[in-house]
Write a structure and sequence with these properties.
Layout (H helix, E strand, L loop, with lengths): L19 E5 L6 E2 L2 E2 L3 H4 L2 H9 L3 E5 L16 H11 L3 E4 L4 H9 L6 E4 L6 H4 L3 H8 L4 E4 L14 H4 L3 E3 L1 H15 L5 E5 L8 H8 L4 E4 L4 H7 L14 H14 L2 E3 L4 E4 L9 E2 L10 E5 L1 H12 L3 E5 L12 H15 L3 E5 L1 H10 L7 E3 L2 H8 L5 H4 L4
Helix pairs in contact: 9-11, 10-11, 12-13
This protein binds adenosine monophosphate.
């Protein structure tokens, strides 16, 4: 079984009229004390919520926030998310201080048609991450149908995504459907030329997806900290740059595989380097592919930016995950910005552009280029696992 062969229903394909709907959402929002500092994840659920309200559903929302490790911890309460939702929805949102047990049961029972209830953090119970059957049964008792709208949690086999989803008639919500449509396009039916751009700190996180991508892409562009292990594998000096010594053999294998398959694998041809990992460490552009002794590469250089942009602009499909440099520091942000601009130009020229991963999305937020992409994937881990060809537990549980 693969994700492509699953038998998933969309919300429009199931009967929800007047029913109690248990909906798993991703309200893992950033907080400053009790204030939600970015309500994007809550805002994104509005269309599905409004559609359910219009059908007179009683809506029970379940979600997690942070890593409270199975213990009640007020720091990770979802109460602020309920407040944010109430403001965005323009109608009252009820909140219960537990997701199972008498408090939750009473709150669910008291719900009227078109009313919305958010239950407290699932991860206050260790049974959630253990995918516990009794806990899942208690969650499932809150609904007559299950709607999965938390794309970023689909790669986890937790009670709220796996065991509970199996117990009810279920469907994927609009957000998940959109993610699958775009990621499905790049994973299974990419139009060529197809180019993948990978960056970020570590080779180890992206090893499997890099191998999988080689089977599909016409060119693979690698930047960011992970590029230095690949340069090292080719015997090129990398100075003090980030290195995963235990991944050098893997990098060499990937380089060989790319050569065998005729896939162009582009690494940085020059760098913006500095002596220290600091925002104010004097930065200079290296004259060549080598990083001089005593310096570390912290961004791709101007020649690389042009090289990468030229390839990206010619593509019909582009997938991008991971920044090209330490974009959090202005002196090392130009590489990621230029990749974002090249993707925007590709989208304008008719290409399908898909961006995944929290840091790449932060680059888009920084540059304001998010709306210029065909699709920004909210789930970094889930999107990589889909591209790796893995069957996501949260989807398998909904296949009938
Ligand atoms: P990841 O979580 O693997 O996607 O890595 C993202 C992080 O990689 C960001 O915080 C970047 O600052 C960091 N990063 C990108 N390029 C480099 C580099 N050349 N050296 C060190 N860190 C980098």
């Amino acid at each position: 079984m693969t994700t492509a062969t699953l038998n998933l229903k969309t919300l429009e394909q199931i009967d929800v009229k007047g029913k109690r709907v248990l909906m798993r959402v991703d309200y893992n929002v950033p907080l400053d004390g009790e204030r939600v500092t970015d309500d994007t994840r809550v805002r994104e659920t509005l269309p599905t919520l409004k559609a359910l309200i219009a059908q007179g559903c009683r809506i029970v929302l379940i979600a997690h926030l942070g890593r409270p490790k199975g213990k009640v911890n007020p720091k990770y309460s979802l109460k602020p998310a309920a407040g944010a939702l109430e403001k965005l929805l323009g109608r009252p949102v009820k909140f219960a201080s537990d997701c199972v047990g008498p408090v939750a049961d009473a709150a669910v029972k008291a719900l009227g048609p078109g009313e919305v209830l958010l239950l407290e953090n699932l991860r206050f119970h260790p049974e959630e991450e253990a995918n516990d059957a009794a806990f899942a049964k208690a969650l499932a008792s809150h609904g007559e149908v299950f709607v999965q709208e938390a794309f970023g949690a689909l790669h986890r086999a937790h009670a709220s995504t796996a065991a509970a989803a199996e117990l009810l008639p279920g469907a994927i919500g609009g957000l998940v459907a959109r993610e699958l449509e775009f990621l499905g396009k790049v994973a299974e039916r990419p139009e060529h030329p197809y180019i993948a751009v990978l960056g970020g700190a570590k080779v180890s996180d992206k090893l499997i997806v890099t191998q999988k991508l080689l089977e599909k892409v016409d060119a693979l562009l690698i930047g960011g900290g992970m590029a230095y292990t690949f340069l090292k594998a080719q015997g090129i000096g990398i100075g003090k740059s980030l290195l995963e010594a235990e991944r050098i053999d893997d990098a060499r294998r990937i380089l060989d595989e790319a050569r065998k398959r005729g896939v162009e694998l582009l690494l940085p041809a020059d760098h913006v380097a500095a002596a220290e990992f600091k925002a104010d460490s004097p930065a200079s552009v290296t004259p060549a592919q080598e990083v001089p002794e005593g310096l570390m590469g912290l961004d791709i250089g101007p020649r690389t930016r042009t090289l990468f942009a030229e390839r990206i602009k010619k593509a019909k499909t582009v997938f991008w995950n991971g920044p090209m440099g330490v974009f959090e520091m202005p002196a090392f942000a130009a590489g990621s910005k230029s990749v974002a601009e090249a993707l925007a130009a590709a989208t304008a020229g008719g290409a399908v552009t898909v961006v995944g991963g929290g840091d790449s999305l932060a680059v888009l937020a920084q540059t304001g280029l998010g709306p210029k992409m065909s699709h920004c994937s909210t789930g970094g881990g889930a999107s990589l696992e889909l591209l790796e060809g893995k069957l996501l537990p949260g989807l398998k549980a909904l296949s009938r």
